[in-house]
TrEMBL record:
Residues 20-90 form the HTH gntR-type domain. This is FadR/GntR family transcriptional regulator. PANTHER family: GLUCONATE OPERON TRANSCRIPTIONAL REPRESSOR, TRANSCRIPTIONAL REGULATOR, GNTR FAMILY. It holds the Pfam family GntR. Keywords: DNA-binding, Transcription, Transcription regulation.
Length: 247
């Protein structure tokens, strides 16, 4: 599968933090970058000084965050020539763990997160149709192809990366950060790898239609198709959630 995301999406991830000097905030931002695929496996992180400048924190704070990431197994540090801190993409969790995660969420919470995500993703798709560059369209087409060939948790990651690309194509750093935040919190539940047989083919067709609408500059159609796509995901997860709670 294609690795990494657009420069706009990555820039949003490394934007200065609202609360200065908190190692926990730096850790959380980098965990999101790794688990959402903004940073590829084995990719070298910027130096401590560069990270500190990008986040607007001290090098001591960055160092503390890197220690936490190493303890979580998400980063490894190599010494000597060509050394530094390198990303370690986490192993794919089992379907059982995803189901347990879904079981702990109430139906009302799932609907609420879905409503929030609906607003963000719909607005991003509309703006992407109005502002995207040819390079943005190319990345969306590649992201759509990733969905066609991916399976299991890779399909889940491809789905999430597609929507990050749409947000980045909207040329709105705030929308991109909102997309990242939603995906790293409960919003990621929308794309858990729990789809029944045949759903992947439907998702591929839906993403092709969204990408085509954005490429044609039809903002209203892009928004409509995106909202329908997300509503289907919410309904599908609600059904799985109810099945998990059934005696």
């Amino acid at each position: 599968m294609r690795k990494g995301l657009s420069h706009s999406a990555r820039s949003a991830m490394f934007a200065p933090l609202d609360q200065i000097g908190r190692a926990e905030a730096v850790t959380a931002r980098l965990v999101d970058a790794i688990t959402l695929g903004l940073l590829a496996d084995s990719e070298q992180l910027p130096s401590e000084a560069e990270l500190a400048a990008q986040f607007g924190v001290s090098t001591v704070t960055v160092r503390e965050a890197l220690v936490a990431l190493r303890q979580q197994g998400l980063v490894e540090t190599r010494r000597g020539r060509g050394g530094g801190s390198f990303v370690k993409t986490p192993a794919n969790p089992s379907t059982a763990s995803w189901r347990e995660r879904l079981r702990t969420v109430s139906l009302s919470e799932l609907r609420d997160v879905g409503d929030h995500y609906l607003a963000i993703a719909g607005a991003a798709a509309k703006l992407a149709a109005e502002r995207s560059s040819p390079e943005d369209i190319e990345r969306l087409e590649l992201a759509t192809e990733d969905i066609r060939i991916a399976t299991g948790t890779e399909a889940s990651r491809a789905e999430r990366q597609f929507h990050l690309e749409v947000a980045a194509a909207a040329q709105s750093p705030r929308l991109t950060r909102e997309e990242v935040q939603l995906q790293s919190e409960r919003g990621g539940l929308l794309w858990l790898p729990l789809e029944p047989q045949g759903t992947r083919e439907n998702a591929y067709a839906e993403h092709r239609a969204i990408t085509a609408a954005i490429a044609q500059g039809d903002g209203e159609l892009a928004r409509k198709l995106t909202e329908e796509h997300i509503l289907e995901a919410i309904d599908r997860l609600a059904d799985v959630h109810l099945d998990l709670l059934a005696p």
